[in-house]
Amino acid sequence: MIVILGLLFLMGSVWSAYALKVKFSGGNLNHVKLYFCLIFNGFFVITYMDVIKYDDFLYLGYRPDITVGYPIIDWIALIGMLAHAFALPMKWKVKRWFLNDKKEGD
């Protein structure tokens, strides 16, 4: 159950980070949008780093028994850190990977 909750937390945070990336990317990217995404992604990266380094969970506190009993939690946190590192908006328009944006003649 703990692993499933960790995966749900990861999927929700990464999905929302990539939704922000798609929404804010493009020619109208400014400093406010970029800093908002940096703070948003930084919050989750620091949360995942605390899990790996200190066994400190956001809502559960210091629980080394969880990472000892379920070492996959550390791998989930590592994947989350990497996913959030790549979820920053770009100056060019990012395509949504889940939609087929092909035009006629492509």
Question: What can you tell me about this protein's structure?
Answer:
The protein is mostly helical and about 110 residues long. It has one domain. It is built from 4 helices and 2 strands, in the order ααββαα. The protein has helices at about 1-25, 30-55, 65-70, 70-85, and strands at about 55, 60. The chain has a two-stranded antiparallel sheet. A hairpin with a 3-residue loop joins β1 (about 55) and β2 (about 60). The longest helix has 24 residues, at about 30-55.
**Main sheet attributes: strand count, strand direction, barrel closure:** 2 strands, antiparallel
Class by helix and strand content?
Answer: mainly alpha
**Strand percentage:** under 5%
**Element pattern in H and E:** HHEEHH
Helical content stands at 55-70%
* Strands in their spatial order, largest beta sheet: 1-2
Rounded mean pLDDT score? 89
Distance between the termini: 46 Å
Low-pLDDT stretches are none
Overall tally of domains: 1
CA radius of gyration is: 16 Å
Shape descriptor: elongated
Number of strands: 2
Question: Number of helical runs?
Answer: 4
